[in-house]
Amino acid sequence: MTKAGEDRPIMDHEYDGIQEFDNPMPRWWLLLFLVTVILVPVYYFAPGDIGAGAKKAEVYDREMAAFAAAHPNQGGVNVTPEQMAAIVADKAEVEKGKALFSTNCVSCHRADGGGLIGPNLTDDFWIHGSSPVEIHTTIDQGVLAKGMPQWGKLLKPEQINSLSAYVVSLHGTNPANPKAPDGVLATSAPAAPAATTPTTASDPTKKP
Amino acid sequence: MNARLDTFSYDDDIVRKFLFATIIFGLVGFLVGLIVALQLANPAFNFGPILTFGRLRPLHTNAVIFAFAGNAWFCGAYYSTQRLLKTRMWSDGLSKFHFWGWQAIIVAAAITLPLGYTQAKEYAELEWPIDIAIAVVWVAFAINYFMTLSKRRERHIYVAIWFFIASIITVAVLHIFNNLSIPVGPLKSYSIYAGVQDAFMQWWYGHNAVAFFLTTPFLGLMYYFMPKAAERPVFSYKLSILHFWSLVFLYIWAGPHHLHYTALPDWASTLGMVFSVMLIAPSWGGMINGLLTLRGAWHKVVEEPVLKFFVLAVTAYGMSTFEGPMLSIKSVNALAHYTDWIIAHVHTGALGWNGFLTFGMIYWLAPRLFQTQLYSKKLAETHFWVSTFGILLYVASIYSAGITQGLMWRAFDETGRLQFPDFIETTMRLMPMYWVRVAGGTLFIIGALIFAYNILMTWRRRPAAYEVQVVTAAPLSAQPAPHHAPASGGAFARFIGMGWHRKWEAAPLLFTVMVVVAVLVASLFEIIPTFLIKSNVPTIANVKPYTPLELAGRDLYIREGCFNCHSQMIRPFRYETERYGDYSKPGESVYDHPFLWGSRRIGPDLAREGGKYPALWHVRHMEDPRSLSPKSIMPAYPSLLTNPIDFGGIQKRVDAMAMLGVPYGEAVNKAEQMARDQAQAVATDVQKNGGPAGLQDKEITALVAYLQRLGTDIKKPAGVAVAPVPAKAGGN
Predict the structure, then answer these.
(1) Which fold, A81-185?
(2) Is B202 in contact with B208 (CB distance < 8 Å)?
(3) Can you tell me the ipTM of this complex?
(4) Region B486-500: what's the mean pLDDT?
(5) What's the pTM value of the predicted model, to 2 decimals?
(6) Which domains does chain B have, with CATH numbers?
(7) Using CA atoms, how far apart are residues B686 and B671, in angstroms rounded to an integer?
(8) Closest partner residue to A29 among B240, B288, B689, by Cβ?
(9) Buried b (16+ CB within 10 A) or exposed e, B323-335
(10) Which of A71, A125, B152, B707 would disulfide-bridge A181, Cβ 3.0–4.6 Å?
């Protein structure tokens, strides 16, 4: 730090006692200014993904395409009736599903599954099918028109399985003040697979 | 020459008035800040319908910017300008009008904002009658100021005056053009701009409100009070010139950096970024000139609290003006935008730069204005350390919160799914930091209370009657003509010799014209293309105006200040589109007068909220958010379920929109009936699903209708066909 005596002479003016030195502007400061000024046209007219010609939409499309190529199985994992039957029978799966249900589902279906904004899950009436595979599909794909989120995008495939097992286990419980029935009366217990279920060979427990 | 000497005195009474207003409204602004900080840490601190976060947050920002910083600027400007120009203000009457008018505007703001009267544009929330009042008071201030300049007894104007001139002129321009709107009621108006253009105008204004209300006026104050308090000459006259002009010219361009990755066209966003980066050096010019003025006086900083405050203020200025350009870089902004990082950034500036400069200035002014000793230097020292520690706690915690939040939003797990799909998880993680912020804010306020007490006790020691200092100076007409040394050397040598600028300093009118040219040229370079280039906003055939009921609901969304916590602008990133749905297109907000893109995500984005949940979900959620999402920090709005919809007022609002060019077709004749029909349909659906009956004439129905419409006009993404993204992703 220079001493006051080394300052360039004071300007020949003063304002209410305030004087000003005629010091040159710090060199590093001028250089910083110059560099940023030079960078402007360089950046602004730069080709590619930076500069004014960059199209954020195109960059996004490429990002999405790259992701899709790397994750071909994203969403919509299908399960077979046999796989679902095994999962539903597994007490550990039901317990895991219960935990997931309490954080993700209770706001619309109530803690006891009796229904609030979403339908009652304990009675014999089903809007989107009563078989474990159909329940799995409903959770995985959601029912966007009615406000049921597409949980397959938010939860992992094995979590969807556990959740399905828990929802199946809710059937026949008798919560207090359930929501009025909605949908079609299922003649058989939900454990029975329905004929219309789409099936594929993919293993639901394997990560995509 | 001394044949003609004028005898006069300075008007210090007006300075004392502004000083008290600064302290009172400072405390109010800080206190409201503490309340909104508490509301984020625990929603129980919301006392609806009036004292909710959405209504109080604008009160906090307006109080701190316009009431605290505004009064501080006027206080220091009235004191310094008279002395720098060796003249009393031109009209004591106009000075008083400025003071009382400004305080009346503040009181009007403090009443109307909590009542929900807002234009929904940040720092321009006040409704049209108050905007007109601001314009009138501002013109009075400007007339008084420029007439004072014209009768000055100092030939050249000092750098502090340059900054005041630039601020007065530019604030007027910004205020008028951003607030153009058509009234639809005594305290309700619609912006004449819509969507992309409205967003552009708002952030041209918003950014320059920071520039020309919180930066340039305070640089003016610094240039007067820093050398005064340090009793040292200003470091470099040449630096003053270069950093002043570059700041005034470059700042205006920077606004679009608030809209990176939004539906604003890429060219504008890039332009905003590069000009922001160029602002580092001009901003730092002020910091350097301030800090280097202290050379040879650093020992005084140890003893003198005034200088301590100034040093911290200028350092905070340097930090936030380095951070600002960094945040304007697109990739940095992608992480920081919508998070608390921005809140931390502005508080470095507001608490550190504006707050501490004001405190230092008032500690310096009080003994002089009250003609006595400062009551306690020790208390001033205590204030400095308590408030400094408060700022540190505030800023450190909120930086952590912002970065945590930004990183959690973008985190994917190994399967490519969002790691935190439930928005509330990202909110809960911030709670400890929100409580540290409350602690930091509390310390800052304790410091401010010590300050207020100290000044009050100083005031009580004042003499029975103030001694009026009599000053003598020769009028300009009796002074020798200015001698500007003939320039020598080549053009470049003449240019850097700054002799030309010395001439400008002797001609305030020319100087002012040059400022106007700099500000307008820079503005028009961006504004004209934004409004004229059609490709900026490609139209989308599916996008239709809001129905009359949805429009009424939108006005409720505005009244409750929902935009303070919820954005409606999904950026083109996979982590955003996975969470919220397809990114927002420019053509989607063409009927949004005003735009409601928001700038902060305390809650999730709502741009594609429509249809994501059943209507009943929204009813229950507005009534009590925690009944559906136990950890939600959103205020409850039970009164929406009982307040009646103002069906009678809907027609007028639809007509106003039609006047602004929104193609309403037959709705211009039967808006009320259309609204009633739609409300009946929504209410029936809610009741059918087990919700409460009789909501067809309640406000909640209009709000739900609006929310259910959001983002639904575009059904399919316009992106590549390789990876179709469902328009509605989940998430709660």
Answers:
(1) Cytochrome Bc1 Complex; Chain D, domain 2 (1.10.760)
(2) no
(3) 0.88
(4) 73
(5) 0.91
(6) 9-461 (1.20.210.10), 548-709 (1.10.760.10)
(7) 22
(8) B288
(9) bbbebbbbebbbb
(10) A125
